[in-house]
Design a protein that fits this description.
The complex is a heterodimer of chains A (112) and B (113).
Chain A: E1 4-7, E2 10-13, E3 19-25, E4 31-38, E5 42-51, E6 54-57, E7 65-66, E8 76-78, E9 87-94, E10 102-103, E11 107-111
Parallel strand pairs in A: 2-11
Antiparallel strand pairs in A: 1-3, 3-8, 4-5, 4-9, 5-6, 7-8, 9-10, 9-11
Chain B: E1 4-7, E2 10-14, E3 19-25, E4 30-38, E5 44-51, E6 56-59, E7 62-67, E8 72-77, E9 86-94, E10 102-103, E11 107-112
Parallel strand pairs in B: 2-11
Antiparallel strand pairs in B: 1-3, 3-8, 4-5, 4-9, 6-7, 7-8, 9-10, 9-11
The chains are: A mainly beta (112), B mainly beta (113).
Chain lengths: 112, 113
């Protein structure tokens, strides 16, 4: 089944403890991106990647890192999480620049 | 800076009614516009994608239109059903290079049986 898989679905952690949220797609998509969704603010883009080893900042990149070493994987790294990064995170992928976005089911992160 | 607005924030209609959801954007320099559906606890599902050169797209009971010059898009849902209850979001891809995507905050739709 064609899909975008995020793990974990739920994560509770403490301030400052490094964590990684994984994202993998099995559709050979070129483009991948990360978003966070907060009540009243909608989805905001964190980072995106247009190909292997090609990444760039979205609108809210502060406090996050990404890497794209393989086409199928695009992990999101929080080196020192803070409570203001408590949010619902989504990974998405797209075959081409003008193709529809396919989303994962989300990761709900709580930082205490 | 591109901003995307969706009005109303919430909408409740009786089953069977035809309805229109609105999406407006401040900068007409867009590459495409996409409509999504989001169910509680789930990810977003793509409904329709309109390229900047297109005026509308249709899929089943859904029709999306795009008027770039006025910075507006509408999603028309015909003969609404309780299963259509969800949050509907629109998103634009600015025509500025990169792979940026700007989302509206969504319209929460409730269709009463």
């Amino acid at each position: 089944e064609a899909q975008v898989t995020q793990n974990p679905r739920y994560l509770i952690t403490v301030t400052g403890k490094k964590l990684t949220v994984t994202c993998s797609q099995n559709m050979n998509h070129e483009y991948m991106s990360w978003y966070r969704q907060d009540p009243g603010l909608g989805l905001r883009q964190i980072y995106y990647s247009m190909n292997v080893e090609v990444t760039d900042k979205g609108d809210v990149p502060e406090g996050y890192k990404v890497s794209r070493k393989e086409k199928r994987n695009f992990p999101l790294i929080l080196e020192s999480p803070s409570p203001n990064q408590t949010s619902l995170y989504f990974c998405a992928s797209s075959l081409r620049y003008n193709s529809p976005l396919h989303f994962g089911n989300g990761t709900r992160l709580t930082v205490t | 800076k591109q901003e995307v607005t969706q009005i109303p924030a919430a909408l409740s209609v009786p089953e069977g009614e035809n309805l229109v959801l609105n999406c407006s954007f401040t900068d007409s320099a867009i590459y495409n516009l996409q409509w999504f559906r989001q169910d509680p606890g789930k990810g977003l599902t793509s409904l329709l994608l309109i390229q900047s050169s297109q005026r509308e797209q249709t899929s089943g009971r859904l029709n999306a239109s795009l008027d770039k010059s006025s910075g507006r898009s509408t999603l028309y849902i015909a003969a609404s059903q309780p299963g259509d209850s969800a949050t509907y979001l629109c998103a634009v891809r600015p025509n500025t290079g990169g792979f940026k995507t700007i989302f509206g905050a969504g319209t929460r739709l409730f269709v009463k049986a």
